[in-house]
TrEMBL record:
PANTHER family: 3-HYDROXYPROPIONATE--COA LIGASE [ADP-FORMING] (PTHR43334:SF1), ACETATE--COA LIGASE [ADP-FORMING] (PTHR43334). Its EC number is 6.2.1.13. The lineage of its organism: Archaea, Methanobacteriati, Methanobacteriota, Stenosarchaea group, Halobacteria. It comes from Natronorubrum tibetense GA33. Residues 7-100 form the CoA-binding domain. GO terms for molecular function: acetate-CoA ligase (ADP-forming) activity; ATP binding. The keyword Transport does not apply. The keyword Acetylation does not apply. This is acetate--CoA ligase (ADP-forming). InterPro entries: Acyl-CoA_Synth/Transferase (IPR051538), ATP_grasp_subdomain_1 (IPR013815), CoA-bd (IPR003781), Ligase_CoA_dom (IPR043938), NAD(P)-bd_dom_sf (IPR036291), Succ_CoA_lig_flav_dom (IPR032875), Succinyl-CoA_synth-like (IPR016102). It catalyses: acetate + ATP + CoA = acetyl-CoA + ADP + phosphate. Keywords: ATP-binding, Ligase, Nucleotide-binding.
């Protein structure tokens, strides 16, 4: 166990604010502890000699040594109570009391004071505004919930105390047990990352599950979860899906990569399996806590009912798994042992009169096939089939082959006894075949998480000082935005840009165009005009003789479109051959929880229409950058679809990594778009740039980061 071991395995627990008043939280917690806790229970109340027949003390300092203090005093007394606990040497505290940051500015001030006291005395504090904590091995129910959890190997955290009470009521009925349970509350000191680390070191925790509304430090959470999921699966329900963050963004990347995309990317990179519902959360957890990992993705289905067999097949098709293709030897063995009317191909239909022996033979043969990584036994109740005997057979065959098997013994009361037997041996039973398949899918996903390798981000040789000087231009602007006039920022980080210059008079435009071989591209440059092509602010293929007039026309169009727009000039740029290239976008949006969020996808004018993009949390290495390129639907265009010459995708991968380094080096970059990044056979070129800079953060950016 880790540094929080005493939090879950205390020898003594004090209830500060204990009372015998009916309906009081202090009484409920004291009763829960008194009834089942293996250790010493110590009531604390300044005016009582005893509470519920237990000797009471005025404060923690005057009580015997306390390992855990559960605080249920009024909000204005919490801070002094924590000081008292700290002075007495109590390291672990659960603050049940509400009235902190969730209530407004006064409560937020009180929460900051709580955090300061916890830091001063090095206290492990759960809450405030918490239901409490549980640990079943020692019978500790330090909550005001109505019942304790059953003992098991799943550890569970939740930001909602009400969610815990509802889940435990349901889980107890389903006979699903837990190791530890934590109501996170306001997470003033201890948060989800702390408990992920703790349970990752706990050999008695097989699966970590949780309900979260937010993650406080996404970068730290990813690091911790990656380490833990080498051995222990993490399954989370993340609520609060919203587009509000995207609506507030000003760049393409910000609009597409909103808060929900950040959580999707962050949790995926962390190795977390995300459930979309409470049902999925426990369907996944039940499989992960009791079954071995499948060697591969082939699933065998054994059933006595055609319809449910088809439903199971459909569910496999909807998952990342696949229906196993049986070998000729398997088909021959099934043909020999099954009735003539049976289907010996996958799914195996042993037909309606199948008894336990026939089910056992079919399952045994299927699990022996080298193409089968897992199996689902699907059965409808019949007069010739005893579910309790079938359960015993499934357990036997699963153990013989050491292959994950789940069951779908359809029915009500008839299946209950068999379900209990299966549960005892770690085999989950589901009424719905789709849920059975989802459990196997979770096993395969965790196997892939354990097997994946994540390379370290590469550090490129770049010119940070030059980049800082360019970013500091934002401090001299009325707003904090920079555009194509700052393309040399990309050049400072080794990202290729076309030859060209931004000019503020037509004669200079002609000089620059003359220095560039061939026709040029000309674009209006204004931080106030985002969609230049919509107003005719871009001219492609301008000959030298037409440059002067093109300049005047672009400026006139911009002033007619937006008279108050700041016109910085016109960009005269080398014409890039787009016939053999693909327009992509690389960008960054800084998420409040996870930090810099990298985006790659199909670019140009279609980026917000098609939204064909992939997302990662920076910093990333080459493997993650390459995966970003491979994930988009337009990836075949880059690989050379329909006779096109393939783009230099390795240069795209390097560009994503260089951008990752740029935004990691400079946290002041809030949003950034390179659109388009033209990817062709001979490399890449960044054609346009937009970014937003936090000028206050810029002052503290570490340009010496190595």
């Amino acid at each position: 166990m880790g540094r929080l071991s005493a939090l879950f395995d205390p020898q003594s627990v004090a209830v500060v604010g204990a009372t015998d008043r009916e309906g009081a939280v202090g009484r409920a917690i004291l009763e829960n502890l008194r009834d089942e806790f293996d250790g010493e229970v110590v009531p604390i109340h300044p005016t009582r000699d005893e509470v519920l027949g237990i000797e009471c003390y005025a404060d923690v300092s005057s009580a015997p040594p306390i390992d855990l203090a559960v605080v249920v005093v009024p909000p204005d007394a919490v801070i002094e109570t924590l000081r008292d606990a700290g002075e007495a040497g109590t390291e672990n505290v659960v603050v049940i009391t509400a009235g902190f940051a969730e209530t407004g500015s006064e409560g937020a001030t009180r929460e900051r004071e709580l955090r300061a006291v916890a830091d001063e005395y090095d206290l492990n504090v759960v809450g405030p505004n918490s239901l409490g904590i549980m640990s079943t091995p020692n019978g500790m129910n330090a909550t005001f919930g109505p019942e304790n959890a059953l003992e098991g190997s799943i550890s569970f955290m939740s930001q909602s105390g009400a969610f815990i009470t509802a889940v435990l009521d349901w889980a107890n009925e389903q006979e699903i047990g837990f190791q530890d349970v934590v109501s996170l509350g306001n997470k003033a000191v201890l948060d989800e990352t702390d408990f992920v680390r703790e349970w990752g070191e706990d050999p008695e925790t097989d699966v970590i599950i949780g309900y979260l509304e937010g993650i406080d430090d996404g970068d730290e959470f990813i690091d911790a979860a990656r380490e833990v999921t080498d051995n222990t699966p993490i399954v989370l329900v993340k609520s609060g899906r919203t587009d509000a963050g995207a609506q507030a963004a000003s760049s393409h990347t910000g609009a597409i990569a909103g808060s929900e995309r950040a959580y999707e990317a962050g949790l995926e990179q962390a190795g977390v399996i995300r459930a979309n519902s409470v049902q999925e959360l426990f369907d996944y957890a039940r499989a992960l806590s009791g079954l071995p990992e499948p060697d591969h993705d082939g699933v065998a289905v054994v059933t006595n009912a055609g319809g449910p067999g088809v439903l199971t097949t459909d569910a496999v098709g909807d998952s990342r798994l696949e229906m196993a293709t049986f070998t000729d030897e398997t088909i021959a063995a099934l043909t020999e042992r099954m009735p003539e009317e049976a289907n010996v191909y996958n799914p195996i239909d042993a037909i309606g009169d199948a008894d336990v022996e026939r089910f056992g033979e079919a399952l045994d043969i299927a699990l022996g096939d080298p193409n089968v990584g897992s199996a689902v036994v699907v059965s409808a109740p019949t007069a010739v089939l005893q579910y309790d005997k079938l359960a015993e057979t499934v357990i036997e065959k699963r153990e013989d082959h050491d292959t994950p098997v789940v069951t779908c013994l359809m029915g009500g009361e008839r299946a209950r006894a068999a379900e209990e037997v299966l549960r005892e041996f770690g085999i989950p039973n589901y009424f719905d075949p789709a849920r059975a398949v989802s459990g196997l899918d979770a096993l395969a996903r965790f196997r892939d998480i354990r097997e994946r390798t994540i390379d370290d981000p590469q550090r490129f040789d770049v010119d940070r000082e030059r980049a800082r000087e360019i970013l500091e231009r934002a401090t001299r602007r009325d707003d904090n935005r920079l555009g194509v006039e700052s393309m040399d920022l990309l050049e400072a980080y080794g990202i290729p840009i076309p030859a060209g210059e931004i000019v503020d008079d037509p004669e200079r435009a002609r000089e620059i165009a003359a220095s560039i071989e061939g026709d040029v591209v000309m674009k209006i440059v204004s931080p106030d005009i985002s969609h230049k092509s919509d107003i005719g602010g871009v001219k492609v293929g301008v000959a030298n003789d037409d440059v002067y007039d093109a300049y005047e026309d672009l400026v006139a169009r911009a002033r007619n479109y937006q008279p108050d727009a700041a016109i910085l000039g016109v960009q005269v740029q080398e014409l890039v051959d787009l016939d053999t290239a693909t327009e992509t976008i690389v960008g960054v949006n800084r998420d409040p929880q996870f930090g810099p969020l990298l985006l790659f996808g199909l670019g140009g004018i279609f980026v917000e229409i098609l939204e064909d993009t992939s997302v990662r949390v920076a910093p990333i290495g080459a493997d993650e950058a390459r995966a970003m390129v491979d994930e988009i639907q337009a990836a075949p265009l880059l690989r050379g679809a329909r006779g096109r010459e393939p783009a230099d995708t390795e240069q795209v991968v390097e560009t994503i990594q260089r951008l990752s380094q740029l935004v990691t080096d400079f946290p002041s970059i809030l949003e950034l778009d390179v659109n388009p990044l033209v990817a062709g056979p001979n490399g890449v070129q960044a054609i346009d740039l937009r970014l937003t800079v936090d000028t206050e953060t810029l002052e503290t950016d570490d340009t010496e980061k190595a």
